[in-house]
Structure formats: structure tokens, C-alpha cells
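Could you join me in thinking about how sequence relates to backbone shape in a protein? We need material for that, and I hope you will provide a protein of your own picking. Once you have written the record down, we can walk along the chain together:

…
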Amino acid sequence: MQVSGKVAIVTGAGRGIGAALVRALVAGGARVVAADIDESAAKEVTERVNAEYPGAVAGVGADVTDSARIAELIAVAEREFGPVDLYFANAGIIGALGLDADDAEWDRALGVNVQAHVRAARLLVPGWVERGEGYFISTASAAGLLTQIGSATYSVTKHAAVGFAEWLHITYGDRGVRVSCLCPMGVNTELLNQGDPEAAAAHPVARAVTAAGEVLEPDAVAEVTLAAIAEEHFLILPHPQVLDMYRQKGSDYDRWLRGMRRYQASLGL
């Protein structure tokens, strides 16, 4: 699929990968609804992009754990630009660390990182099947293929996001619905830095990610993502070494687990 002339919704669009996707999509000729729970951030991205590409973006505040709010995003896109062609389920949170996460924190992580994808697909996929075309892009993480040292909520929900994207692809891939799953490692975003790059050095999740490989800029991730969409690749890996890690995991699971425990110990965790 080429994005020129298409209509897209990007969640988590107020900053980081989401904002970069908005910029890349508009530069490629798409029109975009930029949604974020932080409405002011969504509006700021919208103003910056529209300054260069007038009228190409509509900014909306939305909590994607709410099906009604996702339905409103779709309605905004249809009213402003036309039927939705691409949906980027990009909003995500890390959640509390380890077993300290309580039930409410697990519910929030599942709601944002998994259920938001399910709810969007429930609203969009039937129409795409009727039209014979549509594209669902899930932002998971390398943690969804491997694991995330420090955060059980992030690791488990990102595995689930990958699993749901796989299911969508298998179930609807022969009915016109394309699906891709974005699985980066470290990206220079507020999610990684937790709003404070200096303090992030002491955060277990950030330490585990930054020590594992290069931290990419969001614009680089967006560029790789749109190139993969053009080729309709399912697995989008801005860090190519993740595929080698995934293969090593599958070829000898016990050895991989021992290696991960050693890596965790090397971080002092």
C-alpha cells in the first residue's frame, strides 16, 4: 500500500514515534487524524505539521481505552478526510515494575497496549472487509518478541499485542486487510526517558533497553515503518538485530533464558 491519498489515524501521536508517523504520513501525501490522551500535545503536532501542509492533520484528544472515543476518532476522520484506510495503534505505556504492579496498573497496561487494538479492529475491520482494503499497524515492541527486563506489565502486554496482530493477519489477510506489527528496541522517546533523560539512566527498563543496542530517533523509525508498509511486511524491525535475537530464543529457549538472567545480573538488577 502507498500512503499517498490515504486517510490514517495515529494514536499516541502527541510525541515520539506517533508524532514522527504523523509527519512521515503527511509528507507522503496522506491525511491524518493525530490522537493523543494529551490533547494539547496532539494539537501542537497538528499545528506544526499543518504549518507546512495546510489542512492535512486534525488533532484530537482521546483515551483509546474507551471504544466510544475510538469511534469518535473514526467519525472525525470520515468527516474531515474520508473513510479510514490505515489505523496506527501506537499509544502505549510501560506500567509499574515487576510484581509491584497492582490490579489497576495491570488493567491500565492491558487497556492501552492490547485492548485498544482490539477495540479499534472491532470497529474498522468489518468495513475494510466490505471495501476489500484496509491496513492495521500495531506498535508493539521488541519486548513483544523477546521480553522486557524490569516490567512484567510491558512484556506481557506487548507479547499480547504481537499475538493479536498475528491473529488479525491470519484471519483477515485473504480478505483485503493488511496488518503490520512494529517491534523496535530503544527509541529516543518520552516513554523510554520517562520525561527525564538524566533520571532514565537509573530506571531498570531504560537501562535494559539502552544497554542492548542503538537508541534510534523517532523519525528513523517512522521512515522504516512506511517503507515496510509499502512492501506490506508483517514484522517491522527498525533494529535488524532483533530478528537474530528472536531466532536465538526460538532455537534454544533454555539457553536464551539463561543469557537473559546473566544480562539482568550485569545491569545490577
